[in-house]
Every structure is written in C-alpha cells, then in structure tokens.
Design goal:
CATH class: Alpha Beta
Strand order of the largest sheet: 1-2-3-4
CATH topology: Rossmann fold
Shape: globular
CATH superfamily: NAD(P)-binding Rossmann-like Domain
Order of helices and strands: HEHEHEHHHEHH
Helix content: 40-55%
Structural class: alpha/beta
Length: about 200
C-alpha cells in the first residue's frame, strides 16, 4: 500500500512532517437503498481509513519531537445523522469523535489535534457528491478562502474544534437541545433535492 511506503521514503530523505492535514474525502447523495455499495466502501476507505492510517503514520514522530499538529477535516455533518447521505454523515462523525479522543490522549505532548467542521463550501465536493441541487447547497455556501483563513488561524492556536461561520456554530449546537428524531427529519428536509 502506498501509504506504508510514504513514511519510510520521507525518513530516508530526512524530511520531518510537522503538520498533517487530512483533507481528502468525498460524499455520495441518495437513498442508502439505491446508492452503490462499492462507492460507499470507497468513501469509507478515503474518509475514514486513509485518515486513520495517515494519522497513525505521522503522529508518533511528532510526539517524539514534542511538536506538531494534525488537522482532520470533518464537517458540520459530523453532528447529525444524515438521511440521503447516511454513510457520508457517519464517516464525518467518526472523524470528529476520533479527533476529540486523540486530542485528549495527547494532552501535554506538545502536539495538537484539530477537527475542522465546515458547512457547505464552494469546492469540487458539490459536483463529486451530486448535492448541488439539494436545498442545503441552494441556500448558500461559504467561500473556500474564508474557511481556510479561519481554519489556519485557529489551527495554529491549537484549537481542538473549528467550525467556520457563526451560523454553522449555532447549527452544531442544536443537537444538545432538539430530539434526535426531529433533527433527523430536519436534516432530511435540508438535504432533499429541489429538482428531484
């Protein structure tokens, strides 16, 4: 596997990785009964498995040097169950939970672990995931530069959780107050396509 080749090659070249950003990921729109299993397994491989492997490969050396940081890109989706994108939302819940657990384990090591949880953002994700016609994306998206600036600034400060945009910070607080069944229904309404 290419991931296992990467670290020895970097060590051979004398390259120390101080910061790791696990940003690879994609989504898949549609009812779980109708989406392709192979696509979902590929999504789990990229969104969960690759992120976990990369973190496992690079984190030990950061801890030995007592410096560095890992940023794992999750999503506001991590806070909710996601009808019509069930597997995607679940992968992002994994990323958030994994990141917060690692941050606790690494207390006092000099290494930070951060979960970036952006809302809808103007990236290739929209076309790749076929969500451009959903109400969620029709109601507006954040610009990449705005998300990246906030993420970069807060990552260097060592924040564990970064949620760009005041509206997204509010939205991610709602699960503490709303019944889960109501939340799931509201997410369903927001992710439904306006053209289907």
């Amino acid at each position: 596997m290419w991931l296992k080749i990467l670290l020895p090659k970097l060590k051979k070249e004398g390259i120390a990785v101080d910061y790791l950003v696990n940003n690879a990921g994609f989504g898949l729109y549609g009812s779980f009964l109708e989406t392709e299993l192979e696509q979902e397994m590929n999504m789990i491989d990229v969104n969960v498995k690759a992120l976990t492997i990369m973190t496992k490969l690079f984190l030990p050396d950061m801890v030995k040097r007592r410096q560095g940081g890992v940023m794992n890109v999750a999503s506001v989706a991590a806070f909710y169950p996601g009808p019509l994108m069930a597997v995607y939302f679940a992968t992002k819940a994994y990323v958030l939970s994994f990141t917060e657990a690692l941050e606790n384990e690494l207390t006092g090591t000099g290494v930070t672990v951060t979960a970036l949880c952006p809302g809808p953002t103007a990236t290739g994700f929209i076309d790749r995931s076929d969500v451009g016609s959903s109400k969620l994306y029709q109601s507006g998206v954040m610009e990449v530069g705005v998300v990246a600036d906030e993420a970069y600034r807060d990552f260097l400060r060592g924040k564990t959780l970064i949620i760009p945009g005041a509206i997204h910070r509010f939205i991610t607080s709602l699960p503490r107050f709303l019944p889960r069944k109501m939340m799931t229904g509201q997410i369903r309404v927001r992710t439904e396509s306006v053209t289907r």
